[in-house]
Structures
1.
Amino acid sequence: MLTAAENETLTRVGPDTPMGRLMRRFWLPICTSAQLPGPDGDPLRLRLLGESFVVFRDTAGRVGILDEFCMHRGVSLVLGRVEKCGIRCLYHGWQFAVDGTIMDTPNHRNPKFRERLRAPAFPVLEAGGLVWTYLGVPGRQPPPPRYGFMTGPDSNRAVIRLNTAANYLQLYEGGTDSSHVGILHSNTANPSWMLEEFTPVADEDNPGALAVSDNAPALDIEDTAFGYHYVAKREGPPGPDGAPTHSIRVTPVLLPVGRIIPAPAYQFFVFEVPQSDTVTSTYIVAHGDRPIDRARILAMMGLDDPRFWNDRDCDFRADWSDRLGQDRSRMHESWTGFGGIEQEDAVLAVSMGPIVDRTKEHVVAADRAVLHLRARLLESVRRNEDGLDPIGLDVVDYTGVRSLPDTTVPVGQPWQELVPGNALVPDSSEPAPVTG
Amino acid sequence: MTEQDGAEAGEQLAVELAATGRTVLVPAGLSILEALLDEGVDVPFSCMEGICGSCRTTVVAGLPRHRDSVLTAADRAAGDSIMVCCSGAEGGRIVLDL
């Protein structure tokens, strides 16, 4: 459990909160590239860390991220005209470039005004199918992060965004909770659960497929420069010589919002990015060394059902008017009455309410990696509040960081040997470039 | 030379910043605000024409020569604040709470 104060510290992300200040030290995704398909298209109204933004792609294809409300007298620029390398407010025609340069003020002819002032604009990085920004102290942003999914052909990558009405930590904790995989996701992990027997699924694409039936994995946790990684060890089949084995699965947790979930053919990079205290944008980037079928990934996630999600607004829809969309008539063959791992994860996060009260919970040993997530986040907040760098800020190159899908090893084999890149990620001490 | 210049023709205006004791000279043709901005002094502002009140700054010493349309007669009589975007000072020197 947590104290009420610790829960507040971990879950509140506005500009004047400790976690809000920590998250503002990092580059964070604000939308997908696919949401801004072409020059001069419809601008997006987006929230990040409790603040509102207009995001648009200009005539030259550059992305701009500005305060949503016009600096003149506060009309939403989301209604504006995107044209001539800028966005123009409908009210008095003030036009702004992607970097906040004031291009035109038709009702104010003083050129000194346009030269001396600038609309609040934020740095933009477009990479890996995501648009990233930085909301912290201007000019103090760290170097842009490099992930494995930012390289290679686009066809080897599938990017999904879903917006869920729940605090980010509820979703993030689910991603560091190995013991729920074989239970909540029973239909994926063990489709013959209703016969009370275990049948592994040979699905190379699916991060929910478990190799063995042990639902009480032992956990080992090790801190790293990027946060920590942990291994879930389940009882494996006897080795060739009859020796005991473990089926192990390793998950790196990339503070403050990331993790990598393993599937045999792909790595699933997941970022739980707070739009506000009570709404989270989950970005899932599946990436491998071969072309990926995004429609199949969506089906596996349970996001092919338009009652729950669509690609247009990316909102995950679930409310209690119909029991969050649960179909109890299917529960003889569907463990949950829902379908697909992300649908199940998102529904459960919504079911907890906007911000779960962690003073009332009863955690057990299987939750150790969840407890460690909270401990590392609180440690990182303390560091940041004390004027030090938060955990992971110095890590620029994540390309060597790997998750490990279920792998059978002799009991006692050091699991770290199978993910050597995780320990080798250096703390980069190069100072952040000062720009703007 | 326009009406809005901080320094009158033939006179050099010196602005002293009370917090540091630093003095900023206002070149002819610029407002106090522009001179401060050019020297990296962060002053909030908007209209640059004495309309909006954004750049209202507390006067520590010196006599403002007001040209704005924000301050009331009572404000002017009190003499303790100035719109640095358009106003000047008597006697070539003013000390501001910056």
Note: Residues 268 and 393 of chain A are 21 Å apart (CA to CA).
2.
Amino acid sequence: MKDNLRHMRWFFGVVIMISAWEITGNYGWLGSTWPPLSSIFDYLNSRPNLELLLRNAAVTGINATFGLLLGTLIGASLAILGFLIPRLYLGLSTFATFVNALPLIALGPLLIITVGEGATPVAIATLSVFFSFFVAAISGLEETTAIQRDVTIVFGASRWNQLRFVQLPAAVPRLLDGLKLGATAAVLGAILGEWFGSGSGLGVILVSAMQNFQIQLLWSAALFGTLLTIAGFLFITVIRLLLFRRYV
Amino acid sequence: MRAWLFNALFRYWAILILLVSWQALVTVNDYNSIVAPSPMQVGIAFLSDPEYFMLHAWHTLSSAIGGLILGIAVGITVASLSWATPLFNGLLMPMSLFFRSIPIVAIIPIIVRLVGYGSHSVIMITAILTFFPCYLLFLSGLESANSTRRDFFASLNCRPKGIKMLSFFRYLALPSAMPSLLISVRLLAPTCILVALVTEFLMGLQGLGYVMTSARSTLRMDVSWTAALISCFLSVGFFLLASAVEQKYRSRWVD
Amino acid sequence: MSAAEPFIEIDGVSKRFQLSRSDYVDALDDVSFEIYKNEFVALVGPSGCGKSTLLRMIAGLDEPSDGTIKVGHDHPRQLIAQQRVGMAMQEHGLMPWLDAGENVSLPFRLAGLPVDLERVEELLHLVKLSEFAKARPSQLSGGMKQRLSIARALVLQPDLLILDEPFGALDAVTRRMMNQELQRIWSNKPTTTVLVTHSLEEAVFLSDRILMMSPNPGTVISEYPVPLPRPRTLQTSREEGFLGLVESVTARLDEICCTNLL
């Protein structure tokens, strides 16, 4: 009964939001920048528009994916390193906190020189993903209780074996959560990186649409950015479903 | 003295390696300053015209913090209203999910267009983007009181719904939400600076974000890098400050 | 010591918890007994016998599925509405953001009454925490926090005192001390009290009457009057009369528990 009530509230909330959007758009209450939802769909209806967006979304998507993979790899490696060699842990986690506090956009000027304009989106996406995944990995590894660890030590397991047989399987849920955060971070990083002159991608479209008052294009690009993020979530949910059959 | 140095090294070695490799990279590749300045050149660029950077840095920092304060103020107010009337929450939840799915970098151009170019825009946009996370955290904080305390309040006829709602809010819900408030500030510290920078970057009027983009077009990479580095300092510094505040005051509100 | 007319009347009380559409648990079934004014009654029994559930209903925090509960001819909710109930639980439930004095004053504020500082001081003195009035709960030990919790429960001079395993989280030594303290405080001004506890020694030491409950479903199966004279001291807890009582109650408990296991 309580659940039903909640679902109903949600449903009404969504309905109200969509209708409010349509109405404000149609009456122009928020100015021309807030078009009715329908006009965005109209815009997307035309072939060339759709193609433009899909092409650029693909570019951003590829950048984001590379960023996600690299960031996850680096994050995981450093987390495992920190676990295997406890002395390094403090330095690594301070480093990660430091990286997280850095404004990603400030890395733009720094990266276009060192890795080139083309690779900047991937680089920023990587750094963006690195932190959230590193934190998730570390907290996942720490989650197994001290008792479980003590038991494996008494049985003579090396730190590496502890990792393999106790910590890693237990850390899987946290790691998946970290991947989810990573998906958002990757898309964000990729788009940000594209602002530094990479030539194509949703980031480029967003900026030029903003500067040239192309409102529907602007909203459509934002929509595609959202879809990319959601696609990332879905992909990770699929992985989660596949894995959990084994680990739960 | 020696112990302090050793401790610092132990904690910050990774960051130091970063700095050293930066210098090494530039020296080894023999980049000239148009392409990639070394830490020293950056220092020189800053010192040659500190007022320029300080002015823009001040703009960024004040807009960011102003926006953060506004966003938090609205966030906790709306969260409190939401707590009192679940209807409100039901309406806001889909919206918050919506906002959370759109990447910040996609929302900001839209809001910039919406709000118009101007120095007030940076504060407003920062406020808008810090509002939702704060709202969600504070709302969950308001409901976080443990069952023992709720029972105690119930035994004195003080419940979240009913005539004594205000007392419940004032003496239990609100204090229970304070840790969430402190956490929000810490989490949103780097965010608010990032948002301010991104907005300035897109609008190109004032602030360190503007400096980064304008310096690129005049090929003054050392200026661009300097602005970038100052932003990094501001962001990390503000984050550390927020963390310290959270650490200090957290124990007051938590068991 | 006890008036002729019962203060708390529990009549045919049952409590059913609906877990899902078809699944339910009968926590209590047809419980009936009476408690007299200013009587100290302990509810004991193995885990799952429903004593805490029953206590909550007497306190007015829950409703029975069947049967009635009356406290002083009123519905327990009435007492809550008039702030006539004091409660201390296993988790101290103190507010970490208030100091000791403010914690004890809290009931005044919640009742919408002006804070009677003298009364607060009186209670802090009673539980021997006067010097700690400005200390925060996090600075106090477990035993001190429970003393504070009891002071808070008594500050409005309640007609009914509800104690739900208040000393359950303390170590055995502190527990014995706390029992003596509570006995002393209670004797100072006897209030109708219902105590739920797992410790039979504690029950015998503190109460006038012990009601033993058995689980599945919860019912009262035995009653033990505790005629030991007050004031009781730790000395009393080492005497024959006391130990004999503990023994018979324990024997009965063993019967219930072990029979159930078999």
Note: Chain A has ten helices and no strands.
